[in-house]
């Protein structure tokens, strides 16, 4: 494939500007990050051993399962149902998966498992010690692969994506698993999310996410390299995609993906064949002091969640489109190709799927 340099064109594109909501300030803690958002703007948030459900300007803390002391949330659907797992310092049952709904945390009947996503049909996918990758539907958990494989995302059609035990991305549908392979020359890939059109996003690298590039996959195009924000960046990762084909993730040089100083990391939006630094799309006067370091999810209304650095703290954020303006295309020369425990939606952390720590 031949790269098309963005430096060759200065034409204007219409993109949204965003207002910033500091969700982290609501948790009253110095560390927080948002993992997912639904189409109503409800958000799943983690902090230091605590998790929250955000809706209509208010924050509700999610309780661990009985006997547990720590938890993390990973996904949310349009019914406001949140999935995650909880653990306990004096509890040796491992990762205890749950679904939170209407203020109640209920266990899932799967042992030592981490659920990563839930769709609007209340189907849940994740990884379990005995089942391997699983899909939970109609009160039944079904293995869809071999141990060591993990499912990270699914759409409302029941298509599932994740990483095989061979360290390559996969797509599962209708009982069949497709190895999505890697970008040319790479030895690793992971799929993090899939929209209802079957478009998949993730990362492909020589050895892992630390040297990877964000990709977008469809059955008609195969894997497409989305590039990196800046020529000096050493990696990029796509974490979420909506039904408009807009992709969010992060790019940078700092492999401490949760760095509170904001150095070496930038959240991105990929839209209309262009990769944007989200920090450049904040409406004037609305940045709330943030350096947006990573975006984890985008809903079908264009709202984006993730994490950012504020005065040495890491805080969850919510971006809401405020307007559409014409801006020059980026001039960084980014190539666009014809293309736990407490857990996160980011592939580098998901790889530590066998950790028994309450924090990953």
What does the model show?
This protein has 2 helices and 30 strands. The protein has helices at about 25, 345-350; strands at about 5, 10-20, 30-35, 45, 50-55, 60, 70-75, 80-90, 90-100, 105, 115-120, 125-130, 130-135, 140-145, 150-155, 160-165, 170-175, 175-180, 190-195, 200-205, 215-220, 220-225, 235-240, 245-250, 265-270, 275, 290-300, 305-310, 315-330, 335. The strands form 8 sheets. It has a 4-stranded antiparallel β-sheet with strand order 2-29-28-27. It has a 4-stranded antiparallel β-sheet with strand order 3-4-5-6. The longest helix is centred in the first third of the chain and has 4 residues, at about 25.
Number of helices: 2
Helix content: under 10%
Low-confidence stretches: 1-12, 327-360
Biggest sheet architecture: 4 strands, antiparallel
**Structural class given helices, strands, pairing?**
mainly beta
DSSP strand content: over 45%
What strand line-up does the widest sheet have?
A: 2-29-28-27
